[in-house]
Design goal:
The chain is mainly alpha-helical. The protein has one domain. About 80% of the residues lie in helices and about 5% in strands. A hairpin with a 2-residue loop joins strand 1 and strand 2. Helix 1 packs parallel to helix 3 and helix 2 runs parallel beside helix 4.
Length: about 130
């Protein structure tokens, strides 16, 4: 499963969805969540390292911010991951939804804070569409 997640990570980074004005949206958070919730923290750290290695080629300046983001999201994931496999499907869906909304909210906050209000509308629509899927 780890090899599949590495491949998925590479594909999500290589083929992001274009939104508007050169802004793109990738799904690299999915392999991070899957690794953390189903494989544990050690494989998840390796996925995060792989993400940083893949992205260091195209945007090395983003690495410190990305590492901080992963550190912040890893704390609640670590707490939830211990019992995640014992939860019923409805609770698993609620937990995954919570993290998805949290990431989307942080992304929107960043866009609005940097004055990209027009792009934030596209991100909001994309969030709702991908959440519904």
């Amino acid at each position: 499963m780890f090899g599949v997640l590495i491949l998925t990570t590479f594909l999500t980074i290589s083929f992001p969805v274009g939104i508007s004005d050169g802004l793109s949206f990738d799904f690299k958070f999915i392999p991070v969540f899957v690794a953390f919730l189903y494989l544990g923290p050690k494989p998840d750290i390796l996925i995060i390292i792989a993400i940083e290695l893949f992205e260091s080629v195209s945007s090395p300046a983003k690495i410190p911010i990305a590492l901080l983001n992963y550190l912040i999201i890893s704390i609640p994931l670590f707490i939830v991951a211990r019992k995640y496999n014992n939860y019923k499907i409805a609770k698993k869906i609620r937990i995954a939804s919570f993290f998805y909304v949290l990431i989307s909210f942080s992304r929107l906050t960043l866009l609005i804070g940097t004055g990209k209000l027009n792009v934030s509308v596209y991100v909001l629509m994309f969030t709702f569409i991908s959440f519904a899927a």
